[in-house]
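hey so u asked for the seq, here:
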Amino acid sequence: MNSTDSSQLNDFDDDFDAAFRARVKKDGGVTGVKLKVAKKAADSATRGISKSIKSSLFPGGVTLDGLLSNSQWSLTVGFLALVVVLAVFAQLSSPEPFETSSTGEQLGFGLR
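ran it, structure tokens below
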């Protein structure tokens, strides 16, 4: 290596050093750079964990169509409506309130 090559290499190193220091200063100093690196590591770990959870919960992959087909959804809504109708019917057809003792006296829970 001759002196010309050596001086060009030193100039390159100086330019690189100056550019690096300017970038570090722009990013908030050493602390800012450390925070960016920590944030990137945390984001990467979060993505890895969520990917692992998704793959263990849904081995075949997640479908975007929904959990139920249209017929299954209709059946679910119909069953819910049936439960509500039966609950209302049971409440209206009961001749006595729920709060009665074995002797037929009305109980007053929560009252003194």
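The radius of gyration is 36 Å. Residues 20 and 61 are 43 Å apart (CA to CA).
lmk if thats what u needed
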